[in-house]
Design goal:
Length: 840
């Protein structure tokens, strides 16, 4: 039997429906009761109420009531913080109220540990950062304020102002501009009346950035719509300084001090400008006026600086010590006293004073820098280096410490280390002008030492780098001298052509330019530079040096006579006399060789005699050159034995001024003059196997001379065949030579080829005077035509030059007398001097 499920009773159904209804309907809400407050929380709440009341009293102008309520709130917050030391709200309350009461130390003492435990909490970073800033504990304050500023909240507006003030103090113009602009963006409209202060600070920041236009615009905006402000005018004076207008800046400040006689800052700035321009009486007057306006540290610091500039170091010390009396521990005052002691030569006292300041707890970059520098000046170089390394550690991103270390090593001649230090300064600040200048000087000193040690190439490398860093006349001069020492005259010329155009260039730069151009082979440009050098000075000694340089250029230009005159009339300069004495013998030898080439044997001998009187000193090469020139003059004079001996002695051993084949060439010449043509040709052939630069043309000319001499000797001996062969060989190299053509015609005439000879002589009569002589001889001797002979000899005599002039005149007059031949109408008898006979 299947079991049936029993039905529920009516009462049970009713209860189930009631339960469903209760679940499906709205919930029943119980009354909320917050958990009971802790003692700390209760105190914080009471403190907040008291703080609100204090703020209201302050807003209404009741300062006394506001202070009482702030102190009540502070007490409540401190109790709350004591009850719960880690409470953020209690610590924030303490900081806010203590700052309102300007109790900055209390803020730092109470909430610093809480903030350290909660570094991201802005409600703690803000009051703590402000309190530290007010206590001038900037290294601690600035990171906190920068953290708050990054949140960019309007309630923290003042943080941007504080940071901008610090950045101005730290000379960080860009950072100050960023904060001030953000301040102007966030500040509420009701504070816009004070924007002039922000624009003035912006102007100061732009001055630090050396942005002249932006600085002027900011100061102008700060002044707009307001009564004239002395501080703004002070800023505009700074703009004028940046523009390179110190005189206008002084004029502006003179007006400001007249309109604002009781304001110290413009007077102080004006006094600094007077100091910078060397107007010490005016600077003193302003400094005294500043001191009368108020016995402030800044006033006595200024007065001390004036006294120090007036070389009154004791008075400066007195003023600086008053600075420390007014503000003990002021770093600027401590450094100033040290400076005054140092100026009195009291280095040890200065060191003790600054060391005492350090031991007392004073610590700043400026103080350590001053202490190290005083030690250096006192000769304590190791201590100076130790102290200045501390400066590097304090400001590793600045050039200051490295510059001071460089000065320490520079003072002891440690050039490698000094160069490394100044290089590090440039890494820190690539545009640091002082680092570039002193690095260049250190390089120049090392270059001097390297040059003295025979390392000329290393010296040149140092000086090239120095000149790149310091484009000054001095560096150009040093580099040019080093390059000339290594015979790099082309590079020396390039450097000095730049150096001669630099500010401060004088006659000496033109002198060096002349020598570099002379070494580079441009004698004409060198002469121009030497002449400019002489015109740029009125000192006789300096003009003499320029004149000697010009003489050397004239020698290269072939103006040897002018050069000799300059070198023999030097003037009062010992330096110029030394150069002239060293060069005059060489120049005289040069002129002797030139005269020898021109056929002036007597003139060449006179110059060589003058060299013998002057002497060649220890210059054996010059003595050998003089002997060589003597050998050539002896050869030209026909003193062949003396010539051969002199040439052999001059070229034994081989001389640096001679080519490897000079001996063969000299022997060929001597043999040529002696008439030993075959032997001369043999020597010439040997020399021609390895010709030196410039020799091929001379070898061709000498070969032609040998052919001529051979022809002359053969002609004189009646060997017409030999003469003809030699002349034709000479004509092969000089086919247009009229004299050779004439002489070959003479050979033809002697061989019976009269018609050919006459034709050639008639063609050459206008260019070779002796052709007329030969035409007359042919007419008289062969064709018996006296009238024609007289006419030919008349033309010969009219030329005014040629051999046997007197004899030809006698021939002509004799024929005229014998045959009754008169002179043509209007003609006059030619006159002429007898000259040496030559073989045609």
């Amino acid at each position: 039997m299947r079991r049936r499920t029993p039905l529920s009773s009516p009462r049970r159904l009713t209860s189930v429906l009631a339960l469903l209804a209760s679940l499906s309907g709205p919930p029943a809400l119980a009354q909320y009761r917050p958990p009971p407050m802790s003692e700390s929380q209760r105190l914080v709440k009471e403190g907040e109420s008291a703080q609100v009341s204090a703020s209201a009293a302050s807003a209404s102008g009741d300062k006394k009531d506001a202070e009482e309520k702030y102190r009540k709130a502070l007490g409540l917050y401190e109790q709350a913080l004591a009850a719960e030391p880690g409470s953020i709200t209690a610590a924030a309350g303490v900081g806010a109220v203590a700052n309102a009461l300007q109790d900055w130390t209390r803020t730092v003492e109470r909430i610093k540990s809480v903030q350290a435990a909660n570094p991201s909490e802005l409600s703690l970073a803000y009051p703590l950062g402000v309190a530290l800033f007010k206590l001038r504990r900037f290294p601690e304050a600035v990171p906190l304020l920068e953290q708050v500023s990054s949140a960019d909240q309007a309630e923290h507006l003042i943080v941007h102002y504080y940071l901008a003030s610090y950045y101005l103090f730290a000379q960080q113009g860009d950072a100050a501009v960023t904060r001030l602009r953000r301040y102007l963006t966030l500040r509420p409209a009701k504070l816009s009346a004070n924007d002039h202060q922000i624009h003035e600070l912006l102007g100061r920041a732009h001055v630090l950035r050396r942005d002249v236009a932006a600085a002027r615009a900011s100061f102008t905006q700060a002044q707009a719509g307001r009564p004239e402000s002395a501080s703004v005018q002070l800023g505009l004076a700074s703009v004028l300084e940046l523009e390179g207008k110190p005189a206008e800046a002084r004029t502006l400040l003179e007006g400001v001090t007249t309109r604002f006689p009781q304001v110290a800052e413009p007077r102080e700035k004006l006094a600094r400008l007077y100091l910078a321009s060397g107007e010490l009486p005016r600077a003193e007057a302003q400094a005294v006026a500043v001191a009368k306006l108020g016995a402030t540290p800044a006033a006595y610091l200024l007065l001390g600086d004036v006294r120090l500039a007036q070389k009154q170091a004791p008075a400066a010390e007195e003023a600086y010590r008053k600075v420390l009396e007014l503000q003990p521990g002021l770093v600027l005052g401590q450094m100033a006293v040290g400076k005054a002691l140092q100026a009195q030569g009291r280095h040890e006292e200065a060191i003790q004073f600054l060391e005492a300041a350090v031991r007392s707890g004073a610590s700043s970059v400026e103080l350590w820098a001053s202490l190290g520098s005083v030690n250096r000046r006192a000769g304590r170089f190791q201590r100076a280096v130790e102290v200045h390394r501390r400066v590097v550690e304090m400001v590793p991103r600045q050039a200051l410490g490295w510059m001071l270390l460089g000065a320490d090593h520079f003072a002891t001649g440690q050039w490698d280390q000094a160069i490394e230090d100044y290089g590090s300064a440039l890494v820190a600040e690539p545009d640091h002008a002082g680092a570039k200048q002193w690095l260049a000087r250190a390089l120049a000193h090392r270059a001097r030492d390297r040059s003295g040690a025979g390392r000329a190439d290393d010296a040149v490398r140092d000086l090239r780098r120095a000149f790149d860093l310091d484009r000054s006349v001095l560096m150009a001069r040093r580099l040019t001298a080093a390059l000339m020492e290594t015979r790099a005259y082309g590079d020396a010329r390039k450097v000095m052509e730049q150096g001669a155009t630099l500010p401060g260039a004088t006659w000496r730069e033109q002198l060096l330019l002349g020598y570099s151009r002379l070494g580079a082979g441009d004698a004409q440009a060198a002469l121009e530079a030497f002449e400019r050098s002489g015109k740029q000075t009125e000192e006789p000694d300096q003009q003499a040096e320029a004149s000697v340089g010009a003489a050397l250029a004239e020698v290269e230009l072939g103006q040897v006579d002018a050069a000799v005159q300059r070198l023999t009339e030097v003037g009062p300069s010992r330096s110029a006399a030394g150069v002239a004495q060293a060069n005059l013998p060489r120049v005289l030898v040069r002129r002797a060789l030139s005269r020898l080439e021109a056929g002036d044997i007597e003139g060449a001998d006179r110059d060589l005699d003058a060299v013998d009187k002057l002497g060649t000193g220890k210059r054996s090469d010059l003595a050998k050159l003089v002997l060589f020139a003597r050998g050539l003059t002896r050869a030209e004079s026909g003193r062949h034995a003396e010539a051969s001996a002199a040439l052999k002695k001059a070229l034994t051993p081989a001389q640096p001024w001679a080519w490897p084949n000079t001996r063969a060439l000299a022997d060929a010449f001597a043999l040529y003059k002696k008439g030993q043509v075959a032997a001369a040709r043999k020597q010439l052939t040997a020399a021609a196997k390895k010709p030196m630069p410039g020799q091929p043309k001379w070898l061709v000319s000498m070969t032609g001379a040998l052919h001529r001499r051979e022809a002359s000797l053969a002609y004189s001996a009646g060997n017409m065949k030999g003469a003809e062969k030699a002349l034709k060989a000479a004509l092969a190299t000089e086919p247009e030579d009229a004299v050779l053509q004439h002489n070959l015609a003479c050979v033809d005439w002697r061989k019976g080829k009269s018609a050919d000879a006459l034709a050639t002589w008639r063609k050459l009569e206008s260019s070779v005077a002796v052709a007329s002589l030969n035409l007359g001889i042919d007419a008289q001797e062969r064709r018996h035509e006296p009238a024609e002979a007289v006419d030919a000899w008349r033309r010969y005599l009219a030329s005014g030059s040629g051999p046997r002039m007197a004899q030809v005149r006698e021939w002509k007059e004799r024929l005229q007398s014998l045959h009754g031949l008169a002179e043509p109408a209007g003609s006059s008898a030619a006159t002429g001097a007898t000259v040496e006979d030559t073989t045609p």
